[in-house]
Design a protein that fits this description.
about 160 residues, alpha+beta, 4-stranded mixed beta sheet, about 10% strand
Length: about 160
C-alpha cells in the first residue's frame, strides 16, 4: 500500500464517496497516529458516509450515524478465542448482510433510508456483525458462520435482536 501519507488522500476520497465505512482501530492508528479514534470517526462522517463503524477487538465497536450526534458503543460477545483470522471480514459480512436485509443498502433509495436511520434501525445489523465476528474467532482457522448459527446466538440473548 505504501506509507500512510501516500495512501491517505485516496482513502479519504473513497470514504467521502461511501455510504458505509468500517475500519479497525489499528487501521486508524496506522493512518492517523496519535489522533483519537472518535475524532477520526467524526471527521469521516462529516465527509459523507451515512454510517461509520470502527472495530476495537476485545472492546467491541464504535458506530456513528450521520443524522445522530451520539456515538454508539457496541459491546463485544465474550467468547473463547480460537483464532482471530477473519474477525474483521466476518464483522463486515454480518454488518453488510444485516443492512441489506433491513433495506439500507443496494439502491439510492436504500442509501437515503440509511442516512435517515436511527440507532434502533441499525442496531440489529451491528449486533449481527458482532455475533458473526464472535462466532468466527471462536474457531481455529478462518471460519464463516451460517445464519442459523447467528440466529441461535440471538435466540439465547434477546438483547441482541
Amino acid at each position: 500500500m505504501g506509507t500512510p501519507a501516500q495512501v491517505l488522500p485516496r482513502i479519504t476520497e473513497m470514504i467521502a464517496l461511501s455510504d458505509v465505512v468500517k475500519a479497525s482501530d489499528e487501521d486508524i492508528a496506522w493512518l492517523h497516529p496519535d489522533e483519537p479514534v472518535e475524532d477520526v470517526m467524526r471527521r469521516w462522517i462529516a465527509s459523507g458516509p451515512a454510517l461509520v463503524v470502527v472495530t476495537r477487538g476485545p472492546w467491541g465497536a464504535y458506530a456513528l450515524l450521520a443524522g445522530n450526534r451520539d456515538m454508539l458503543h457496541v459491546d463485544q460477545l465474550t467468547v473463547e478465542v480460537g483464532d482471530t483470522v477473519g474477525a474483521g471480514d466476518s464483522f463486515m459480512a454480518g454488518l453488510v448482510s444485516g443492512l441489506l436485509d433491513a433495506g439500507f443498502l443496494g439502491s439510492r433509495y436504500a442509501a437515503r433510508r440509511l442516512r435517515a436511520a436511527q440507532w434502533s434501525d441499525v442496531q440489529p445489523s451491528l449486533h449481527r456483525a458482532v455475533i458473526t465476528s464472535a462466532l468466527t474467532v471462536s474457531r481455529a482457522g478462518a471460519y464463516a458462520p451460517t445464519m442459523d448459527e447467528v440466529r441461535a446466538v440471538r435466540a439465547q440473548d434477546p438483547s441482541l435482536r
